[in-house]
Structures are given as structure tokens and as C-alpha cells.
Design goal:
Elements lengths: L1 H24 L20 H28 L4 H26 L4
Length: about 110
């Protein structure tokens, strides 16, 4: 029962990240982010910035979704490993890359 609850929660969180990533990447809704995250982004770099940040959020969402699905088959903390690989190892690094490259720092 706990695994099903965890999978549902992770599915909802994944959906939120994927929708926000889509809005950033495709619709270029930069206002989703805090304004201090993009204050130094040049106007001609905003398209590239929203693309990188959106892809990072979608990758995090995919990690949440896979972790939830994986938890249905393998119980325990092993599904958390998959989450952290996608969240910290891939998604967050993509977003940090975009933040440093286009905003010239974290804030």
C-alpha cells in the first residue's frame, strides 16, 4: 500500500515538473522562475535560457516518474537512488549550467 501511495505522489510531482518544464521550454514563460534567477540574462539569450531550464525541469520530472514506477516493483530505498540520479545528477546540473552560463551566477 505504501508503494502505491509513493508512486501516486511521485507521479503528481513528476507531472508538475514536466508541465513547468514544458511552459519554460516551449512557451518560454520565464516568469515561472523567481525574477532574481534571470535578472542578468540578456534579452537575446532568454530563449536559450528557458530552453535549458525547461529541459532540466523535464528531466527532474522524468526522474520522479521513473522512481515512482520503479517503487512498485522494487520496494525500499532503491527507487530513491533513481530519483537522486535524475534530480541531482542530471536535472539539477543542467539547470545549474544554464543559470551560470546565462545569468552569470546563481543569483
Amino acid at each position: 500500500m505504501e508503494d502505491i501511495f509513493f508512486a501516486i505522489i511521485m507521479g503528481v510531482v513528476a507531472l508538475i515538473f514536466i508541465v513547468l518544464g514544458y511552459l519554460l521550454w516551449v512557451k518560454q514563460k520565464i516568469s515561472i522562475l523567481h525574477d532574481y534567477h534571470y535578472t542578468k540574462v540578456k534579452e537575446n539569450d532568454k530563449r536559450a535560457y528557458t530552453r535549458v531550464m525547461g529541459i532540466g525541469m523535464i528531466v527532474i520530472g522524468i526522474g520522479c516518474l521513473l522512481s515512482g514506477i520503479y517503487s512498485l516493483f522494487i520496494s525500499g530505498a532503491k527507487s530513491g537512488i533513481l530519483f537522486f540520479v535524475f534530480f541531482l545528477g542530471i536535472g539539477l546540473l543542467i539547470m545549474l549550467y544554464g543559470q551560470i552560463k546565462y545569468n552569470h551566477g546563481l543569483f
